[in-house]
User: What shape does this take?
Amino acid sequence: MLNPPSDSMNFRWWRTAFTRIDGVVDIAEDDWSLMIDGLSAARIYRVRGGPDDGRWFWAVQIGPGRVPFNSGTGNADGGREAREACEAILRAMGGLESA
Assistant: This one.
C-alpha cells in the first residue's frame, strides 16, 4: 500500500513506451510517465510544433482514491518544471490510498 505523498517521497519517472500492433515496443522521446502501484499517475512530454513548440505539457491523471481523474494540466518551459508541477499536485492530494 502506498503511503501518503510527502515532501520526502521520491517519485520515479519512466520513459513512456507504446506497444505497436506488431508487438514491437517503441520508447517515446522526451515523454515520461509516473507510475504509482501500476497506475499511470502523471505524464509529461515535450510539445512538437504549434505555438507551444519546445515547451513541456504536463497532466496529473488520477485523483484521490486512485480513480481516473484530470487533477491538473498545464505547460512548462522545461521538463523539470513540468515534473515538479505534477509532483506538487500529487503531494497536495494528501494521499492516494484506495477508496
Residues 34-92 form one domain. The chain is about 15% helix and 45% strand.
